[in-house]
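Why does this matter for the project? Reviewers at the last site visit asked to see concrete outputs rather than summary tables. In response, this paragraph embeds two records directly. Each consists of the residue sequence and, immediately after it, the corresponding structure tokens. Nothing has been edited or filtered.
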Amino acid sequence: MPMNTIRDFTIQGMHCGSCVKRVQEALQPHAGTTLVKLSPPQATLTNCTKTLQELNLILAAAGNYTLQEKAEKTGTIVVKGWFATYQPLLTIIAYILLVTLAIQAAGGHFSGEMWMMHFMAGFFLVFSFFKLLDIRGFSDSYAMYDLLAMRWKGYGLLYPFIELGLGLGYVLHWQPRLVNTITLAVMLFSSIGVIRAVGNRQKIQCACLGSVFNLPMSTVTIIEDLTMALMAGFSLL
């Protein structure tokens, strides 16, 4: 790589100030100067002799971050469309929907109440799984907008286990009224922070799938939280 070069990268997986610090500290020894920004998540390196693959290996030791080099000719970033951006989330929801409908079909008749119970079980089990893959990364991201997590970091570490417990509660049909009441309270409270962040147009990562997928906070997250709250509320009637 020739000297006196400037290379621009986009960064996936970076969602808070501590992420900026970790990425900055990881890349700094391998460039003349390093500038890392959160909004938008990107890095500019001068006189860097490392390849993109080598830089990503270096970042892998610092956290779940991935660099993508901007096009040299245009210097622009390819902006994903709405479907491409939310494809991981939509695929997971479709997968849970397919499985829960198959369970109903196997039973020979459709029960809306049982389908909701199975869907919420799948939702909480799958979503808690992705959060638990990088629980600290999730906690940092969740603290950017959740009203309780931003004041008590322990709540962000505890939250994936709350979802796991709710998922198991729905699977076992254990104390349905209690489980639905907790679900309603948790999801309504969570939606307050999401609505606040979206209303303030904060450019932060949605923590619904933990730090595994770099999904932006948007009305999709609001719909997701309120839908689960609505299902729980309907089951309580």
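We now turn to the second protein, recorded in exactly the same manner.
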Amino acid sequence: MELTNNKETRSKNKELFEEIISGLSDKLIKDFGLKKTGSKYTFKEKGVRKEVVFNHHTDKWSGELIITPAYCIKYDALLNWFSKFSFKTKSDQRSNYSYGFVGEKIGYNTNYFFRSDEEDLSAVNKFHEEVLSCTEYVFTNYGTLPSAYKNRIEPILNEELELPDGGFDWAMIDLTLCKIVNPKNYNKLKEIILDRIEFLNNREEPNVAYYHDKIDDILRYLESLSTNDLENHKIIDSIYPSWYEWYTSIHKK
């Protein structure tokens, strides 16, 4: 099979991408208050960042332009306090998000395929409609801490939502959200989440393993913070080694 990801194809797809996205710009900016920076549309105010990111590339075999939108919200109050324990760099933590989605998580497409040698207005219109629908869904259901609590924490408490199959940060984000919005349910949520953490640790999930021996210290710190502390916390250097340093140390011959 002949490779079609050549310079000419990439150049055409770049133009095609800009043309497709230009049809969305006005609505994303006007309807959602987003600001365009490259292929990212961002809304910022104190303590929160909302983004629609249009990841895209040219398929090396078909030459198709593939666009993968992502819809993300970051709340500083849910993330910044954890920086002292995180193995991520400050830069990575600044670009982190609290809740993020691709289309398939909310009933839409994740990847969209276009060809520079075919004019398919119906595919472009469908792309625009779905992006706007996904943006509205995420920004409505997770656009405030109370709405995020309703759509994320309540289903967990009611055993209607399966918890993530890996990672650790999500657990601290969810606990922090509960602590801020409805602290009376914090202990119940903590019990559910810690059960999941133990399950993942027993499966030797590497991110969980890194934090497992530190959980008591992490939760003690979280529980000592007021809502005001959480809202005003800045990203700081970690008190623990990086994941690589930790992993290397436990696998020394």
